[in-house]
Amino acid sequence: MDQEVFQKVHPREYLARFLNKDVRPDGRSLTKARRVNITVSSIATAVGSAMLKMGKTTAVAGVHATLVQPAPGAPDQGILDVAVELLPMASPNYKSGRSSEEAICLTEYLRSLISPHINMSKLCVEAGLLVWQLRLTVYCVDNDGNLEDAILLAGVAAMRNVLLPSVRIIGEEVDEGRDAQMVEVKTENEEGEGEAESIIAVATVERTNSLEIDTYPLPISFILFDGKVLIDPSVAEESVCDSRITFLFRPTGELRGVLKPGGKNVPENLYQSCLTMAKERIPKLQAKLEAT
């Protein structure tokens, strides 16, 4: 039987044939992760952006900023919106149009891991009046496996790349030719009734204000297949795995969490094997991010 046909008809048996020889279909050993390349400032219209390639898996992240009125209960806190988009070009399984369940789950995954590391007070222009609203969107351009790690690393790189302009509020009149944005702010009159009032915020052209993100999550993922551990799985390997486990580290190398979304239990010896490999890889991954 043709190898390509055999892989489609018997995917587990196909993978097992390779793993029994301690090699994977793409030529890697079981303990070898794919090369990670990160480039930043790749989107000219964004205040922060990054493109990450993990083998063929490719994610592009962009951060766009808008001046808005803060939420009523958080007058000095900015706003961060997060979204993951799975482009049809990334996989035959992705369709254009409404967000899929996978995209929704990945969005929540990304939001839950990035939001705690952003100091929202850094996004405040004037308490109670004006804050920055950031929208982080990560696009999956090519999914050849381990997409969770790829979108998280791309998102972290993009947020670390953010530079915001200084903002000065100058009222309702502005000189012609100045870079001004009209922002509608709702205020209350003496009776407590809402009234709409417009202000103008002027942003300088030069962007120099970073978010000063000192700590962030670094993911290292594995799958288990027939009692064997594979780091940084391909999409074909993920499709037949028995379970998946992700270790989340701080840049200092400290383990901050472990994610295991279902699947079979992981024996203690295999868990420790994964953890050892993850600890060895973290410094290299952190160096990639710090170099951007």
Written description of the protein model:
- InterPro entries: ExoRNase_PH_dom1, ExoRNase_PH_dom2, ExoRNase_PH_dom2_sf, Exosome_comp_Rrp42_subfam, PNPase/RNase_PH_dom_sf, Ribosomal_Su5_D2-typ_SF.
- Pfam families: RNase_PH, RNase_PH_C.
- This protein is α+β, with helices and mostly antiparallel strands.
- The chain folds into three domains: 106 residues, GHMP Kinase, N-terminal domain (Ribosomal Protein S5, domain 2); 134 residues, 2-Layer Sandwich (Ribosomal Protein S5, domain 2), CATH 3.30.230.70; 37 residues, no CATH class.
- It is built from six helices and 13 strands.
- The strands form three sheets. Strands 1, 2, 3, 4, 5 and 6 form a six-stranded mixed sheet that branches. Strands 11-10-12-13 form a four-stranded antiparallel sheet, with helices on both faces. A three-stranded antiparallel sheet has the order 7-9-8, with no helix packed on it.
- Strand 10 and strand 11 form a beta hairpin.
- Helix 1 packs across helix 2 and helix 3 packs across helix 4.
- The longest helix is centred in the C-terminal third of the chain and has 23 residues.
- The chain starts with a helix and ends with a helix.
- The model has no long low-confidence stretch (mean pLDDT 90).
